[in-house]
Design brief:
Elements: E1 7-10, H1 14-23, E2 27-30, H2 36-41, E3 49-52, E4 62-65, E5 68-72, H3 88-98, H4 104-109, H5 112-118, H6 124-132, E6 135-140, E7 143-148, H7 149-152, E8 153-155, E9 158-159, E10 166-173, E11 180-186, E12 196-205, E13 208-217, E14 224-225, H8 227-231, H9 252-264, H10 275-305
Length: 309
């Protein structure tokens, strides 16, 4: 199929984008276009105007200031495949997550900010943003504003962005040097969206978990932070590490996984996965991701001590 006819505008400034969005009855923004163009070809979307932002240089910038990473809305997924593109553990977490996003050609064109604008429940970036308290920066007729990720997602493909606003950046707080990170995704086939994906960070002091953050992907109609699972971990001793595949039922990470599945998540049945299966998968992936984060934290702690064992 071919998309319905539409007007095309190549914007040169953010105010120009805002003007088009404010005056166009049904305007859409084109950055990477990996979701937009497909939906237009399938005629599930028929915008009257497509405004291309790829020539706006200020949107193609990434910088760290005051311990906050600001990612402009033209920064492509592929940038984060290099863990050194972002300082500290956050760069390693991004590198773990980004390789799960579609395929290399899509990562070459698609943008992080585009994932937030699309707000698919299986988006890896959106789940991490909720877990890490990221903010989405928007520009509109009344100026700019920031919306916390936890308030930005309203449901499948629904956000707090108004039709006349454009996402200009995503702001991520950096992680402290000793933070352990993990990200694991489970999908039915390599070509499918994630059935479940989990991102986690752990901060440990004297062998006890001081802070945990867990983001759940495709475990509800929007990305979630697993507050109950996190609470179950605070003050718990990490103990011997495991690969996560043979955890005893009373292991703290196994208990946190069950809390995430039963108390935090709200999965719906899918053609190849009923609710019972999905809850089991959530519990398992959470536990394994926590094991990965704990191993990463221990490795970082050894490096900081200069321990080569």
């Amino acid at each position: 199929m071919k998309p319905a006819a539409f007007d095309y505008v190549m914007a040169r400034t953010v105010p120009e984008v805002v003007d088009v969005l404010s005056n166009g009855p049904n305007a859409k923004v084109l950055a990477g276009g990996q979701s937009l163009i497909l939906e237009m070809h399938l005629e599930r979307l028929s915008p009257d105007v497509v405004v291309d932002i790829n020539q706006i240089a200020e949107l193609d910038q990434m910088e760290v200031r005051d311990s906050v990473l600001r990612v402009g809305s033209l920064i492509r997924h592929r940038v984060f495949e290099n863990p050194h593109a972002v300082p500290g553990p956050l760069g390693d977490l991004f590198a773990l997550a980004v390789v799960n996003i579609a395929h290399p050609p899509i990562r070459n064109r698609g943008t992080m900010a585009g994932s937030f604008g699309w707000a698919h429940p299986a988006s890896e970036w959106c789940g991490l943003a909720v877990a890490l308290d990221a903010d989405i920066e928007l520009a509109g007729p009344r100026g700019t504003r920031q919306v916390a990720a936890r308030d930005f997602f309203k449901g499948p493909l629904q956000t707090a962005r108004q039709p006349h606003e454009v996402i200009t950046a995503v702001r991520w707080p950096l992680l402290s040097g000793g933070t352990g990170v993990g990200f694991i995704e489970h999908r039915r086939t390599h070509f499918c969206f994630a059935q479940v994906a989990v991102g986690a960070t752990l901060n440990v002091g004297d062998g006890m978990i001081e802070r945990a953050r867990i983001g759940l992907v495709n475990c509800a109609d929007r990305p979630l932070r697993a507050h109950a699972a996190e609470a179950a971990l605070i003050g718990v001793e990490v103990g011997p590490l495991s690969d996560g595949y043979r955890l005893p039922a009373d292991h703290p990470f196994a208990r946190a996984g069950r809390a995430a599945a039963e108390q935090d998540a709200a999965p719906i049945a899918e053609p190849y996965a009923d609710i019972e299966y999905r809850k089991h998968t959530i519990a398992t992936v959470v536990a394994r991701t926590l094991c990965q984060a704990a191993a990463d934290q221990r490795s970082r702690a050894s490096s900081l001590r200069g321990d080569s064992r």
